[in-house]
Design goal:
The complex is a heterodimer of chains A (271) and B (241).
Chain A: H1 5-19, E1 35-39, E2 47-53, E3 56-67, E4 78-85, H2 100-115, E5 125-127, E6 131-143, H3 148-161, E7 164-171, E8 174-183, E9 191-198, E10 201-204, H4 208-213, E11 216-224, E12 230-238, E13 243-244, H5 245-263
Parallel strand pairs in A: 4-6
Antiparallel strand pairs in A: 1-2, 2-3, 3-6, 5-6, 7-8, 9-10, 9-11, 11-12
Chain B: E1 24-28, E2 36-42, E3 45-56, E4 69-76, H1 91-104, E5 116-126, H2 131-145, E6 155-162, E7 165-168, H3 172-177, E8 180-187, E9 192-202, H4 204-240
Parallel strand pairs in B: 4-5
Antiparallel strand pairs in B: 1-2, 2-3, 3-5, 6-7, 6-8, 8-9
Helix pairs in contact in B: 1-2, 2-4
The chains are: A alpha+beta (271), B alpha+beta (241).
Chain lengths: 271, 241
């Protein structure tokens, strides 16, 4: 059982500092940590990216595989997002199947990518009802220093943005994969921003020590639709605390501004 | 999308208006073994919730010295959906169990029962949309039935965008064919949000409107919850005399 005293002392310290708009690591309440993105770091993957938010370090890889479509969408490819909290990332992570936190993380990232309609799955169909491309997006947490949702969302996004799809020829019922690649059919790009609520303050891009004492968090993903209008595409509250309606709306406003800031960091002129 | 979800006179597939809930019938105290229980028929969604505890924590190392541990399990019966669902917990059910626990926990005075556990089990017998919202609202009644001190009930409802308009209390067809789905849970007399999730595309204005509509829906669910508690315990107290 973790010690309950240290977090409550730290919580008070964090709240007191926040009264004057400051944070333990010197940031203001709305500052992101330094974000670093590197792409194409695993040659054997069709796409890959590492993302750092401060010391939080995440890698995502994309593999394309031919498989069967879902029965209710026979003409569409499939995207599947999974997350692994590997034990080297935190003393608190253990080996074993993904726990509820890893599952929630993967599903929140998945929702952002899916609802923005980033991947044009209609173009991933090879033989309707029989063979389609499956895009496997796998997230590995390498160093857990807070805000895994935003780091993982950005890593998955950058891995997909820079991935290449193997060219395939369909001859009758056979699919022949060629040694050539085509760009992945992509559309609107989702950007996720998470805020933690501690006391009555909202903290953008929470650090681990802030997450440990937070009441709850809110993650909001934004994407541009076909008319280039900015829309909310996914949202998730986590943690056992509550939000007032005023805090909820304020958090969404702040997240929107921060998402525009993150969007500018995307590789090779993507927006 | 071939199917029209809203007819020309503004009615939905089951005849409801945009801001109308489905018929909701809560029953309290429906199980003998559980410390508290409740059942709901929410349109065609049918959910049974049982609460055990506060009871000794198992395994023991889970016990917390200053508060009680809350666990929740949301589970769908294999026969609750069109195509049989494997009874093993899916990733969706694991995520929903987590957000349901986080939606209910703020209402419970956990500090009153150190070293113990409260287990909340929600079994979805038939799923027809908004199952997490129905499970949360019903679980709040089961917790109350177990006599667990609470700050407030938790009431929940989902708002969707279908055919371009926002509708209250999403049913299955609207969830599958609609453009967005936003479940929200709140403690109504505290006016605090305990769960919000969203998927689909909404403008900022649509989001603000969705939240308002969800709040109105939660207040209506709250009235039905109070009514159910009132009639259950009024009958119970008469029987004692």
């Amino acid at each position: 059982m973790t010690n309950q005293i240290i977090p409550s002392v730290k919580r008070r310290q964090i709240i007191e500092l926040a009264e004057s708009g400051k944070r333990m690591d010197g940031r203001s309440l709305t500052d992101l940590r330094k974000v670093e993105i590197k792409t194409n770091i695993v040659e054997k993957a069709e796409g890959s990216a590492t993302v750092k938010f401060g010391d939080t370090y995440v890698i995502a890889g994309v593999k394309f595989e031919i498989g069967e479509p879902f029965p209710d969408t026979p003409n569409e490819g499939v995207m599947s997002v999974s997350a692994e909290f590997v034990p080297l990332a935190s003393p608190g992570f253990e080996t074993g199947p993904p726990d509820e936190n890893a599952i929630e993380l993967a599903r929140v990232v998945d929702r952002g990518l899916r609802e923005s309609k980033l991947l044009d799955t209609s173009k991933l169909c090879l033989i309707p009802g029989k063979k389609v491309w499956i895009a496997w997006v796998d997230i590995f947490i390498l160093d857990h220093c807070g805000n895994l949702i935003d780091a993982s969302s950005l890593a998955s996004l950058c891995a997909l943005l820079t991935s290449k799809l193997p060219k395939a020829e369909v001859v009758g019922d056979e699919v022949k994969v060629l040694d050539e690649y085509v760009p992945v059919p992509l559309r609107a790009i989702p950007i996720n921003v998470t805020l933690a609520k501690i006391g009555d303050k909202l903290f953008v891009d929470p650090s681990l020590e802030e997450e440990e004492v937070m009441d709850c968090r809110l993650s909001v993903a934004f994407a541009l639709d076909d008319q280039k209008q900015e829309k909310i595409c996914a949202m998730q509250k986590g943690g056992v605390g509550t939000l007032s309606f005023e805090e909820l709306l304020r958090a969404v406003e702040i997240a929107k501004v921060k998402s525009q800031e993150l969007r500018k960091l995307l590789p090779s002129g993507e927006k | 999308m071939d199917k029209k979800l809203i007819t020309e006179d503004g009615r939905r597939l089951d005849g409801r208006r945009f801001d109308e809930l489905r018929p909701i019938k809560f029953q309290i105290g429906v199980l003998k073994n559980a410390d508290g229980s409740a059942y709901v028929e929410w349109g065609r969604t049918k959910i049974l919730v049982g609460v055990f505890g506060p009871r000794e924590s198992h395994p023991k190392h889970l016990a917390m010295p200053d508060r009680c541990l809350i666990r929740a399990r949301y589970h769908m019966a294999p026969f609750s959906v069109e195509e049989r669902k494997s009874p093993a917990p899916s990733r969706r059910e694991i995520e929903l169990s987590k957000v349901i626990r986080e939606a209910l926990e703020p209402a419970i005075f956990v500090e009153l029962f150190p070293r113990t556990t409260i287990d909340i089990f929600a079994e979805v017998l038939q799923a027809d949309g908004s199952t997490r919202c129905a499970a949360i609202s019903t679980a709040a009644l089961a917790l109350a039935d177990a006599g667990i001190p609470m700050r407030d009930l938790v009431s929940s409802v989902a708002v969707a965008k279908v055919d371009g308009s926002l509708v209250l209390d999403v049913m299955d067809a609207e969830d599958k064919l609609g453009d967005s789905d936003m479940p929200l849970a709140m403690m109504p007399s505290k006016n605090l949000v305990t769960l919000i999730q969203m998927d689909g595309l909404l403008t900022h204005e649509e989001f603000v409107k969705s939240v308002e509509l969800a709040k109105k829906g939660c207040m209506e669910v709250y009235a039905k919850q109070k009514e159910a508690l009132d009639s259950h315990f009024r009958i119970a107290s008469k029987e004692e005399v």
